[in-house]
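Entry 12.
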Amino acid sequence: MESPLLIFNDKGIYCPPADIYIDAWRPVKKCIISHGHSDHARYGHEYYLTHPRNEPIIKHRLGKINVETVEWGEKFKINGVTFSLHPAGHVIGSSQIRVEYKGEVWVFTGDYKLQNDGVCAPWEPIQCHSLITECTFGLPAFNWRPQHEVMTDINQWWKENQKEGKTSVIFGYTLGKAQRILKHLDPSIGKIHTHGAIENMTTVLRDLCEFPETNLITRETKKEELLGNIVIAPPSAHGSPWIRKMVPYETAAASGWMAFRGARRRRAMDRGFVLSDHCNWHELLTAINEFGAEKIICTHGYTDIFSKYLRSIGLDARTEKTQYEGETLETEKEAV
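Predicted 3D structure (tokens):
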């Protein structure tokens, strides 16, 4: 093609022939939204298009918006450009966006992971000519263990704290990580308590996935009710006055960053569990092989290192700057 089907400008990723944006970071007239995290679903667009499972999420976070939905695999045309959404496996309602025009196919992955978490629709590969991919964890050092092993460790940690008469407090992002942890906790151990931000989002998602019973922590909740049980809270709650009610407690972080030695210590956590809603190094390479793209554009994450490696194995890869921040931005936005 004479010009790229998708281009990067100061507002986001733009499709000129369709006059529509994908995950724009500044207000635009029309925008396709890949998923509900705050660095991808911004307030201020005149028109939003997304998957039905993401609709309640962005309405909860953004308020009253003009939104239309399409199912995965359902093709729709805008000015002769054919679009379709496909599961990204990142969080509930997360989609990859396929764009086709005059025989040229592009795919924007958004955030994605290959590991099936049992909560959201699993990722599926899409053949394309050009690929726009995240690489949040695009370093060989990142290599995830199977989810069932990590959740076994989390449940065992809870049991050990229970024997010592402590409350277990585990931190995970309000959308995605919290529900993934909740889904696989063992309710036979004790009660599961939640921070208000976690409870509010989980309530929105209960129609979309079956979760164990939770107990919202309020001002009336007594410390004795929490002892021996587990609390799911957003990262912003760590070190806040809110957590004083949990004493005595042990803290844990569930994040891909826990794969880095020293990450737990820097975040002042007692335990760290390596659990990420993004691809690790090997999964990124597996996905890229299955996409079969001739050209690859790396956006957020270890873009320089990952794209350099792709070029070293003979792929046409480059980087583009965006305002997507992977897991880091969600950490800062949890208090909202």
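Annotation: The two ends are 43 Å apart (CA to CA). The first strand starts at residue 7 and ends at 8.
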